[in-house]
């Protein structure tokens, strides 16, 4: 290797290791031994091989070396000098617009002077905030390329384009300021936007929303219309929840002919095929979660859908399942008493009402319970009785084998609904954090126009849409930026509603009716480690309570202030926001909260639903923190996906934080996790993607008690039961 080449490598390695706790001489020695043929990929690989619990900083060395590769590729494609790192931003916007990658709205909305001003704000030094896994994820999945996958956009430009796109409809006098604030929030990794927004903002294709929920009516028209709508949303990258509790059960009557219905399973299998065949932009299979009520006569076949044994004609392995549970069912499980199953069609025909349209307004009493007991007592209804615990055993068996069904505690969800004056919440979404009003779209008639055109008319239902972004607790809280951050974050989320392009008319209508957003969080374990708070402690429960109350206050206040500027969501009148019941139900009685309650009553609120904690596994990787409110899998492990295997250490891992991280996901007592989640759920108006981490050998009684605790403590939903086949050391709690 020549002196000049070695000098160049020395400069690169010195820059890559600057300020980090790594041995640059170790890396230079390997470069020297490898000689003239040394490539950047090799050096990155050597840096990655050095990562372990004692040497976590090597991930930043690998990231900085990878940045050099990205800078070089972008410079080659854009025709600028690699020493500039970032080339001419205005020329990039022009080039990718001309190539049909960026939307023309960027150049139509912003002048060259505006874009040059934004370019002056781009701070390449913030690229050093990425660890290797975060940068690799961002570069390979999210940065804009040309149609041949050539690198053009660089990390800070992705943040800036997202900021520009989300602020395009703001008043020109303030637009630059809002773009600058959004860029500040994103580029400092204080927050992330949801995957569809991160992927598609500023581009010509794809929508920005993560989550949709459809409600299927009991008719052939509704079932097939729903399938078509789900296919359109899946094509554009949406995750979808589907409520099928209104569909008649197997053996029900059709047009008065008894025993003709084949039940919900064939329609679920049809959606399973849609999930497989209509993939998400060619990157992954469609993602569909289907929910059914625990009193539905097909519930047992439904709970067996994802098992790996039995009749394959009755299996659907590519969808996810969720079960809707009333309080009374959980009470019957506790008491080891009977449970009755009904055909929803027969209930409508005989009793004149639909059980799913009611819920218990108080724990222990309510209109759902009264009607269910009427159905039990009726001698005109066909019914089947099973021990409630047998249904619960079936649920848990499926959870340990497949991770699902998800649990949806329907009474608690509806008791806490912000907008009960506008409808019911029947189920949640793919990731169990969204709870909003739903109703099926109703087909009215097909009309032949004079010119021969056929027009189909529908009465649109509430087809749920949610727009997500998340606070990085591990960075935002220690840096004391929550107030500034949430102020811009809520505005970004609210703007998604107006600029989004959704493929179904009823989703657009529902989106604007409620203006629902889902401000969430990730990095909880990261934050506990930095604050030296053990997971299994009263201190962690109290901290969750205090922190999420503060986040709720700032979020609600910001939405109220935004309503003064832009107006309230259309169905604000009659809501719990308008009456003040939202605040009294939560027990918010301090002077600060009372003042906010009065402000909301006077000025309204911009968004009918505000907060939801999503799984955000990919975006938390990019931000270099821990996922959602989950604990880390281990302090050091390999992150494996279809296309990579990358060593990963818990963020800010050192001798101070190791003790907190050492008690990792499958070691931690899950009862403490439930308590933490109950503390934060009080302040989250929607729900939380909350996983249980258990050994595959867990006693049925222990898993049952976890579910009962979650229900008793007021959780609205639980997500996966994630079980591991490995033996778990230090798992005293799961033996108790």
Structure characterization notes:
Helix content is 46%, strand content 12%. By secondary structure, it is an alpha/beta fold. The protein has a domain at 3-187. The longest helix has 29 residues, at 538-566.
Shape: globular
The proportion of strand residues reads 5-15%
Low-confidence blocks of residues: none
Tally of contiguous helical segments = 31
What is the CA-based Rg, rounded? 27 Å
On the 0 to 100 scale, the average pLDDT is: 94
Termini gap: 63 Å
Question: Main β-sheet, in a few words?
Answer: 9 strands, mixed
Structural class: alpha/beta
How many DSSP-defined strands?
17
Offer a few descriptive terms.
736 residues; single chain; 17 strands; globular; 12% strand; nine-stranded mixed beta sheet; 31 helices; alpha/beta; two-stranded antiparallel sheet
Structural topology:
Blueprint: H1 3-17, H2 24-34, H3 40-49, H4 58-78, H5 89-98, H6 105-109, H7 112-121, H8 132-141, H9 155-166, H10 172-187, E1 191-193, H11 195-200, E2 211-215, H12 220-235, E3 239-243, H13 265-277, E4 287-293, H14 299-303, E5 320-325, H15 327-335, E6 338-341, H16 344-351, H17 367-377, E7 384-387, H18 388-402, E8 406-409, H19 410-415, E9 442-448, E10 454-459, E11 464-472, H20 473-476, H21 482-499, H22 505-514, E12 517-522, H23 524-531, H24 538-566, H25 576-579, H26 581-586, H27 591-603, H28 617-622, E13 636-641, E14 644-649, H29 658-662, H30 670-681, E15 692-695, H31 700-712, E16 717-718, E17 721-724
Parallel strand pairs: 2-3, 3-4, 4-5, 5-8, 11-12, 15-17
Antiparallel strand pairs: 1-11, 2-11, 6-7, 8-16, 9-10, 13-14
